[in-house]
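Data availability (excerpt). The following record was deposited with the supplementary files.
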Amino acid sequence: METKIRKIKLRDLIFMNISALYGIRWIAKSTAASFGLGVAAIPMWLIFAVLFFVPQALICAELASEYPSDGGLYVWVKEALGEKYGFMASWLNWTSKLFWYASFMTFFTINIAYLIGKPEMLNNKYITLTCSVIVFVILSVLSCRGMAWGKIFTNTGALGSTIPAVIMILLAFVGIGLLGKAEPSSTYYARDLIPDLNANSFVAISAIIFGYTGGEVAANFVTEMENPRKNYPKAILTSAVLVATIYVIGSVAITMILPTDQIQASTGILDAIRQGAANVGIGYWLVQLVAFGIAFSMLGATLIYIASPIKMLFGSVPKGMFSEKLTTVNEVGIPERAIYLQAGIVSVLLICTSLFPGVDTIYNVLVTMTALTALFPYVLLLISYIKLKKEKKMKNEVYVMAKQDSTCIWIGRIVLALCIIGIVLTCTPVMGDLKSNIIYQMEMVGGGLLVIASGLWLWSYFSKKIKPD
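Predicted structure:
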């Protein structure tokens, strides 16, 4: 059914991609000495931006231009590897997001606590849980209206995440570097910028790789875009360069303001801005303003991530794979009942995480679990891109990443290798004793294998019972 809602224009698409690609929380996550790389995160952000992030974004742009469809990742993989693997890409993408939602809502609640000036409320996990569930359910209902309407949140949300980073950068480089209001909290010698080769740093590097994913998300709203063949590549390249720049400079800024052993993965950004503001005589109101901006930015990002994997999985898979009630779409192409099912599942996950002691523990466990399961769909994506290029099936006259197919194939292979390395590093044992490492591997590796096995079982059931031919 045709909708009267205006199309998503180039500017809106750039903001949408920034909302999907950029998460300010990754700056603190990567630089925290307890669960990150410290100042060694700075060159890692730069290296993986060049070798992984920008090439991955350009590959998604080329595929979206070649196959402009709301199926996005599902369609791209299906074109190369068939329906079975297209489904698996959709299944793995959706299931990984279930854990991501839970970690994201935890981070949202942290910013609300700082906004109202009561960070101590984070010690009460039941308040965190209640706030997270209510907000996620509301966003799920709003996402059913589509991204042509949701761009209101993604446009302002993109500014809500980038402006706080700019403020932190200014407080560091102007307050400390130019005005000398405080001494830099870190040094940046060559030895400081080389990461230690240990289990924690390996996992942190995999988290950086995960932080650089998301180039495919906005492709699920192609039918709502204005001139997607031309505008999508422009938007994804522009946003990728901006996001990579903010990650690198933001990591320098936070380590200038706070010692890396004082950076918390979940509260580090707000702690840095509070300290940076105090250095130049600015009151706590700035922290509250930034917390509001970050919280609002998360609304826009969550809206995209709620609707995108659902639209791809339940709205694009073969008829009969799921109940017709779950796959029926509304006037803007969103499977509403599937959205509501997802809201219920995520609410249960959030309740289960309340069993963990402390909000920072919840946050770290969920993000690490997400980093493993979320990278599998990109393996299928990159294998598909390489195969399509090898078989000369992409005849795109609008946008190509490189003139020579051989160049595109080699770039795809490099990104694929890095993606596989990210998966392997995520599985690195990081616990202090054998028993804890066994439990950790069962959660991380076993959980990932369980998700893959469940997807293969669903496809097998579909093939034998629903499509016996």
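Summary of structural features: The CA atoms of residues 135 and 160 lie 17 Å apart.
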